[in-house]
């Protein structure tokens, strides 16, 4: 008998979490009653590291997703397949915005399959309103002092202002 999916991971760096990420989490909840947002350490993201520390990214994600029943936020280091085994997740849900996302995510899914054939990969297409949105674009806008309130939750906008503009904000 085939095992039903009861727990999925939504992995990412979440540097920072955006409304696009939150949309993927909401859609994952439609597929499965239990979702773990897996915040990756990603020490060498794009060769420069992350803007926020792992602890900060986890806390921002927890605050952004507060009130979503069935959602947990956890940090992880190492291989995603090992983390999936550790938390007994059955699948990975990833959002796709464009063909470039698909190519990268397909490579990751193929590698994960080779490491653990029992871990399913599920792709959801980005909602049109978030198809352009990425953490890197949000960081760039914030670094120039631009308003990011329409792209990220208030707690994230405040943290970005503090990080890039020196304005106080509590994470």
TrEMBL record:
It is an enzyme of class 2 (transferase). Substrate binds at residues 13, 45, 80, 94. ATP binds at residues 13-14, 21, 95-97, 105, 130-136. Signal peptide: none annotated. It comes from the Bacteria. Residues 9-140 form the Cytidyltransferase-like domain. GO terms for cellular component: cytoplasm. Keywords: ATP-binding, Coenzyme A biosynthesis, Cytoplasm, Magnesium, Nucleotide-binding, Nucleotidyltransferase, Transferase. It catalyses: (R)-4'-phosphopantetheine + ATP + H(+) = 3'-dephospho-CoA + diphosphate. It is found in: Cytoplasm. Gene3D superfamilies: HUPs (3.40.50.620). The record marks 21 as: Transition state stabilizer. InterPro entries: Cyt_trans-like, PPAT, Rossmann-like_a/b/a_fold. The keyword Transferase applies. Its cofactor is Mg(2+). Its EC number is 2.7.7.3. GO terms for biological process: coenzyme A biosynthetic process. SUPFAM superfamilies: Nucleotidylyl transferase. Belongs to the bacterial CoaD family. Reversibly transfers an adenylyl group from ATP to 4'-phosphopantetheine, yielding dephospho-CoA (dPCoA) and pyrophosphate. Homohexamer. HAMAP family: PPAT_bact. This is Phosphopantetheine adenylyltransferase.
């Amino acid at each position: 008998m085939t095992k039903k999916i009861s727990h999925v991971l939504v992995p990412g760096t979440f540097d920072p979490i955006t409304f696009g990420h939150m949309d993927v989490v909401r859609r994952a909840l439609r597929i499965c009653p239990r979702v773990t947002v897996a915040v990756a350490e990603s020490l060498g993201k794009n060769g420069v590291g992350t803007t926020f520390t792992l602890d900060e990214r986890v806390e921002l994600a927890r605050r952004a997703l507060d009130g979503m029943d069935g959602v947990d936020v956890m940090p992880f280091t190492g291989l995603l397949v090992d983390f999936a085994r550790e938390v007994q997740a059955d699948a990975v849900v990833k959002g796709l915005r464009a063909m470039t996302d698909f190519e990268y995510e397909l490579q990751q899914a193929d590698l994960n399959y080779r490491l653990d054939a029992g871990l399913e990969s599920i792709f959801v297409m980005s909602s049109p309103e978030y198809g352009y949105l990425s953490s890197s674009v949000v960081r760039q806008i914030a670094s120039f002092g631009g308003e990011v309130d329409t792209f990220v939750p208030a707690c994230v906008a405040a943290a970005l202002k503090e990080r890039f503009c020196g304005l106080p904000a509590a994470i």
